[in-house]
Specification:
The protein has two helices and eight strands, in the order ββββββαββα. By secondary structure, the protein is α+β, with helices and mostly antiparallel strands.
Length: 112
């Protein structure tokens, strides 16, 4: 597998999805959420975003909490390691998964 080095500390696989970015803290995933859906599921990658359906409404942070819990479950990591870093009130968000590498969550993102 070829790697592209965006900086010397974090080489990124050349076949990594466009919605995934390695940072010093972990991996940032650009997501587009579809709240008030019938079930929680990963729809796939659309427009350089990981599209995720959520059942909770976007009221009082309920959808954000469900998004973080859903990603934690899919990545098999603790809920406390997941946070929304940008787009808290938007459908398009950036979620940080702390302490992991792109390779660790690539199959989760592509498995949608």
């Amino acid at each position: 597998m070829k790697t592209i080095s965006r900086n010397n500390n974090h080489p990124i696989p050349s076949d990594a999805p466009a919605c995934v970015r390695q940072t010093a803290q972990g991996v940032e995933i650009t997501v587009q959420v579809l709240p008030r859906s019938s079930r929680c599921e990963i729809v796939g990658i659309h427009d350089e975003c990981l599209k995720i359906k959520l059942t909770k409404p976007p009221v009082d942070g309920k959808a954000n909490k469900e998004l973080c819990s859903f990603i934690a479950k899919q990545c098999r990591t603790a809920r406390t390691k997941i946070s929304v870093v940008r787009g808290e009130t938007s459908r398009r968000k950036v979620v940080l998964v702390e302490g992991v590498l792109v390779e660790d969550i690539k199959s989760v993102v592509e498995g949608g």
